[in-house]
Design a protein that fits this description.
single chain, mainly alpha, 2 strands, extended
């Protein structure tokens, strides 16, 4: 199993685990380790935070390994068979069929977003009306959101107006990627 695939997404996982640790660290009784202003860190709080963070870490990386090892179609088929007894109450087959189609769209969506972003950044850096570079963080955030929306809306419209073409692009993109990485 390639280490590169396991390491992908480590930054968001690190932030999520940090939030889990910090949120479980405070407000527990026990022997006091440190006091920082109104916040008290206790031995029990540290132990509970460590255990819960380790559990979340284990779940996240077990899911990553499962996703690397098991093909997506097999996983969705297994879930569909597992939830088949609920078919009389819930539309299980339709739900998992829609989930499979949605997950098939992600690679092409990612590639198209990357292509459009590359085209837009080649045109030049974001400048203000006076021609100076924008330095304001809020302005950059708004610009990034507007840029993201300008990419997403046409892709959503394209996927809804001509889904056959959209899925054909997905299959071609996946086949091209397989040819490049044998």
């Amino acid at each position: 199993m390639p280490l590169k695939k396991i390491k992908t997404g480590a930054v968001p996982i690190f932030f999520f685990l940090s939030f889990t640790f910090i949120s479980n660290l405070f407000y527990h009784s026990g022997m006091v380790i440190a006091v920082v202003g109104p916040v008290t860190i206790t031995e029990d709080g540290f132990r509970i935070a460590s255990i819960r963070t380790l559990r979340v870490f284990d779940m996240v990386y077990a899911a990553k390994i499962l996703m690397i090892i098991t093909p997506l179609e097999a996983m969705i088929g297994s879930l569909k068979r597992l939830f088949r007894p609920l078919q009389r109450v819930l539309p299980v087959h339709e739900f998992f069929s829609i989930m499979a189609l949605t997950l098939q769209c992600f690679p092409v969506l990612k590639q198209k977003l990357y292509d459009r972003y590359s085209e837009n950044t080649k045109q030049g850096p974001g400048t203000s009306k006076s021609g100076e570079r924008t330095r304001n963080i809020i302005s950059n955030f708004r610009t990034s959101v507007a840029l993201f929306a300008s990419f997403m809306i046409p892709l959503f419209v394209e996927s809804m107006t001509d889904p056959e073409k959209f899925f054909m692009t997905t299959k071609l993109t996946t086949e091209d990627r397989k040819e490049r990485n044998p």
